[in-house]
Amino acid sequence: MARVKPKRHPVVVDMTAMCDVAWLLLTFFILTTQFKKPDVEQIKPPSSISEKLLPDASLMTIDATPDGKFYFTPVENGTERMQVLDNMAQKYNLTFTDQEKVAFTKVQAVGVPMSQLKSFLNLPDEERKAYKSPTGIPMDSTKKELVDWVQQSLAVNPDYKLAIKGDVTTKYPRVKALFEGLRDIDFLKFWLITSQEVGGNPE
Amino acid sequence: MAEVQVQEKGEKGGKVRSKKQSTRVDMTPMVDLGFLLITFFMFTTTFSKPNVMDLGLPAKPKENQKSPDTEIKLSNSISLLLGKDNRIFWHQQDNTSLTDATLNETTFDREGIRNVIKQAKANAADVTKFTVIIKPTDDAVYKNFVDILDEMAITKSEMYGVTDPKTWELAVYYKKVGGAAAPAATN
Asked: What is the pTM of this model?
């Protein structure tokens, strides 16, 4: 019998396929990642034991700052945003130019009363991003613009969900005013954004 | 980064043979990098989402609709008053019997309010109908409200309601808050 020669097996594994998969996944994650947009004002949500994550949905957000101002973030979708703005304009007898409408699709959050919305939308991009309203959206027993925003958004699409992000130190009466306003329009289910409970209080 | 392994074995001057050249590129570092980035993006995607808690409000009673009978036995319920400076008070009294002495103060931590609720639940006549009535005063902050909803989840008290404090409760509360010099847990 012939002597079996030890064959020199190459130990190099072909990595091409693995590399392909890795970069494919990478591309997927890069495209799906949404980086957190900078907040208009610093809001520190209270902690809770809830482990439910904010679901993916057409989401509008109401921010309640420590000094009781309200900001409203309409849904992301640009065309639906325009419809919301149209509805609001109709309700408040205002007209917006196309330019202002385009600006509205890009805003991070609305924090001005309807009367000032026009001038807010006419600010240059950079200024608008940094603009902090001294009043926020009015929300009291006489002027319920914030609730109108929610209502007009729901008129565009009743499937919108609402998340409320309040600060640790937001006064309860402000939150109560908002809740009462939402009850008035029969919008009863929404989410409160909280942060994960960290240490110190193990369950 | 990639290393091209070229093995040149040709001798100079000899017959020019087609060189057997390995075109294999070492992909290992590239794969490493790819997976590193994947890990990064995976973690940032999941962790950028904030936590949420559900909140459902009761519908407002319609004009022509009589509000349902919400009579709750005192022994089967507990009222929590959220006060200023993160203070919390509780009682199981009605408007005639509530006094300074029967409005108890406790704390938001696990030894405080959680035990109070558990005890009240254990002493309840009908545990299935045990109701917690949350009454945030105007001095409370949003955090107190979320904290107490959290406690509801922890103590599994599914029956709870949020309402405004009554005037007789507020009277005792202000007497207590205004009078007490130092917040002392009197549990």
From this structure: 0.70
